[in-house]
Every structure is written in structure tokens, then in C-alpha cells.
Amino acid sequence: MSPFAHRATAQLERNDGLYVRWDAGNAWGTPLLVETMSQVGTRMAWLLPRSEPLMVGDMSSRGGGPLFGHKTHDTGEDADVGLYLKGGRQPLDGFVDVRPDELDLDANWLLIREFLDTGNVHFILLDQRHIEALRKHLLEERGYPRDYVDEVFPPRGAAIEWSAHGVVRHAPNHRSHLHVHVQRAADLL
């Protein structure tokens, strides 16, 4: 039995109104991840009723363990989620790299905020160019306080401890999706 078998025990069930699973065989996670994905899918459908449902990529295989093409996704605590393109569109046939000017910045900010507001998200990974576009949008167009934006999206070059909870940090190869890692705050103590 896999040492991760106790973790990836729940499957994100089909729910076309809220999200589309890229591969049902890789839509397994901890109960916390599945609950978080369902909760965020529900909230996004309510907040953006005219947008397409979330595109959920790889989570984990049943029982966990290594998942082809990923350094993580082996414990059931990680999920890849498509980015909203302009007009609330989701890449429902797979992830494609996008430029920052192709992003629906308001919809992606809502998505990130909804994930963070669950209190279950340890961190989110995203390409630095997308982070910078979101930072600029929130500061210049939406008037968010700089200290709040810096807390969620640490400025380029800022030292970030991997134990930092509830932040969006840069990772290469994340121009097409968010990588969400869940872990209850109590587990970080």
C-alpha cells in the first residue's frame, strides 16, 4: 500500500455546473481538498454566473503516490485549476499558457480570494508575470491597500518562508493555471 493512501481517499465528483474535471482518474484528494474545491466551485458559480465553470486539472491519483508529470500531487493536497480568460472563459479542453493581458483579472482575483477565504489553502503557485498583473490591477484599478496586496502577493524578490500561509508565490510553468495546496492552519503549527 502506498504511504500516501490515507490521504487521497476522496474523489471530486462530477458537477458540470460548478467545475469540469480534466481527468476523473486524477481527481482524488484529501477530504479537505475535495471540500475546498467544491466550496470554491459553488462560490464562483454564484459570483460569476455567466462565466464558464472551473477547469480542474490534476489533483492526485486514487491513494496518492507519484503522478506522472508532477513533482507534487502525490499526497492529495494539491490541485491545478484553470485561469479565467477575458470574458470569464475557462480553457475547458486543457490548460494553455496565456499572457497576462489575456487574463480576466477580476475573475482570477475572485478565484484566488475564494480559495484563500476558505482558510484551507497553504499557498497558491502562479507565474510571476501573472502575479505582477494582478498586483497592479488590485493596487491601481481597484484601490486595495498596498500592505494587503503585499501580504497576498509578496513583491518580486521578497523573501517568503515556505511556511507562510495564504500567499500566492511564483513558480515556473504556471502560466496556464493556478496550483493550489491545501493544509489547515492548525497543521502548520
Any overview of this molecule?
By secondary structure, the protein is α/β, with parallel strands linked by helices. The protein has a single domain (10-184), classed as 2-Layer Sandwich (Muramoyl-pentapeptide Carboxypeptidase, domain 2), CATH 3.30.1380. It has helices spanning 31-47, 105-117, 128-141, 146-152; strands spanning 10-11, 19-21, 28-29, 54-56, 78-82, 121-126, 167-170, 177-182. It has a four-stranded mixed sheet with strand order 5-8-6-7. Strands 1-3 form a two-stranded antiparallel ribbon. A two-stranded parallel sheet has the order 2-4. Helix 1 packs across helix 2 (105-117) and helix 2 (105-117) crosses helix 3 (128-141). The protein is globular, with a radius of gyration of 16 Å.
Question: Which CATH class?
Answer: Alpha Beta
CATH topology: Muramoyl-pentapeptide Carboxypeptidase, domain 2
What is the level-2 CATH architecture name? 2-Layer Sandwich
* Unreliable residue runs: none
Radius of gyration: 16 Å
Largest sheet descriptor: 4 strands, mixed
Number of strands: 8
Instruction: Count the DSSP helices.
Output: 4
Share of helical residues: 25-40%
CA distance, first residue to last residue? 29 Å
**Secondary-structure element sequence?**
EEEHEEHEHHEE
> How many domains is the backbone divided into?
1
Strand order of the largest sheet: 5-8-6-7
Strand content: 15-25%
